Amino acid sequence: MHDGFITEQVFDKIAWRINHTNVPTEEKGVNRKAAVGLILAGVICLMAWMMIKSVRNEIVLLEPVLGEISSGNRIECDLTLDDALRHFTGNMKVIWINFYEEDLNQIVFSVYGNEADPGAVRIVSATVNGMPQFPHFDEDATVLRFATPFRQGESLVIEMQIEGSLNLTENEGQMMAILPVPEVHSEGAWKKGVGSGIVEPLVAEAFESRVSICVPAGIGVLAGGQLTEFQPLAEGTRFTFEQAIARDLSIYAQKGTMVQSRADRVMVLTEKRARANELLRAYAEAKKRMQLAGFEPVDGLSIGECSERGGLALSGLILCENVKGENLVRQMIQLLSRQVFGVQVGNDMERTPWLSYTLAAYVELDSTRGQMTEAQFEARHREEIEISTRLTRPRGVCIGAEASMFYDRTELLQVLCEAGGEMMLGLDEAVGREMMCRVLSVYVEEYSGRLAGKEDFLKVLNRETGSEWRGYIEDWLAM
User: Fold this and answer.
1) Is residue 311 domain-shared with residue 425, that is, in the same domain?
2) pTM
3) What are the DSSP calls for 356-407, one per residue?
4) Is residue 212 part of a domain?
5) DSSP category for residue 416
6) What span, in angstroms and rounded, lies between the C-alpha atoms of 97 and 80?
7) Residue 68 lies in a domain
C-alpha cells in the first residue's frame, strides 16, 4: 500500500507453497491419522480463507458514478478475448432513439477498428427489433449500414454478434480495440465518425455503456468508465465497466498490474506496479490542482499507457504517454479536461478539434500557473508559442483548422494546446478569471450529453459576459 492507493491485482500465476514439517510416526496420546487429518483440514481452511481474502481485497468496487442523459441511448457489450490477445468475439446490444426531426430509412455505424485494417471488425449476424437483418459495409469498411425504417421518436434495438482483431500498439504487449457506434445524423445526412486518424474517435451522440470482458489468466483489461463488477473464472476473469456519458467504446488490454484508488474510483492498468502508483499519484496531483483552480475533474475513470504524443482521451479511458514528473501531471490535467470538453460535451473532433484541445489547454495552464512564478510561467508558455508559430505559419495551419490540415499529432498539439491556450488566456485576462470559469461552467452545464460547436460556445460566452466576442474568437482561430 502506498499513498492511500489500494487494491492491487498482479495477473500472474500464483503458486501456493506449503512447507511440511516431519510428523513423528508414533507420539504418546496422539493418533497419527487424526493428526494428519487435522493438519490437512487446517491447511485447506487456511488456503480457502486466503483465496477468499485475496478475491475480496484485490478489487474494491464502489458505487458506479452513473447519471442520466437526455437521449436514452444505451450500448451493452459482452466480449471474450482469446489467449493470444489477438482476437475478440462477443455480442453487442444497441438501444438507439431517433430524436432527429425527420423519419429515416437506415441507421449507420462508424467502425473505427476498420480504419487501419479493413477486416478488423466483422459482423457475424444481426437483428433489428428481433428480426434478422443483413447490414453491409461501405467500400472502405469504416461505415456499416442497417437499412430499416427509423421513424422520429422511435427506438431501435439492434443486436449483433461480432468478431474482430485487436490492434497491437507500438508498445509491445498492449492491445487496443474500438467498437462500432452509431453516427450522428445532421443536415439531412449521416456524419462519418472516422477521419484523419490524428485525433481520437470523432463526432458521436452520447450514450450510456456497459461493457463486460472475459480475459485469460495473466491479462488485465480496461474499458471506458468505472469498474463495477469483478468475477474470477476458472480460466480467467470477467471485468465489467460502466459509464453514463460515452462517445466511443474502447478496449485496452495487456499483461500487468491493476491498481484502484478507493477515493477517486480510478482503475489503472500498467506492466509494473510502480508505474501504476506513479500514474495514480499524478492523477491525485492533477485533481488537486484542478480543484484549487475551481475545476472539478470527472472520476470513475480507467487509466492506461500509450505511445501517442500527448496521450489519448477516449470515453472514460485515459492513456498517458510515457512521461514522468511535472510533464505527467500537466498531461493528466489536459486528458482529464478533455473528458469534459470532448466527451461530456461532445464536438466534431475532425472539423473543430480546438473546442476540445484548446479549452482543455486553458484548464491545464490555469491549474499549472499557481505552481510557478509569473516569470517562469510566461517563459515556459512563450517559448512553446514561438515553437508552434514557427512550425505552422509557413504552411498556413491555424488554431481553427480541421484535424486533417495538421501534419501530425505533434503539430496539432503544439498549435491547439499552446497557441490555443494563449487565446483562452487572453480571453481570461479580458473578462476576468472568475467570469471565465463561469463561462466554462455554464457551457458544460448546458451542453452536457449533447454536441456543441463554435456557435454554441459563442452563445454562452456572449450571454454570460454581456459582450460580443465573435471577432476576437474568429481572429484567433485564423492565427
Assistant:
1) no
2) 0.83
3) HHHHHHHHHHHHHGGGS-HHHHHHHHHHHHHHHHHHHGGGT--TT--GGGSS
4) yes
5) I
6) 28
7) no
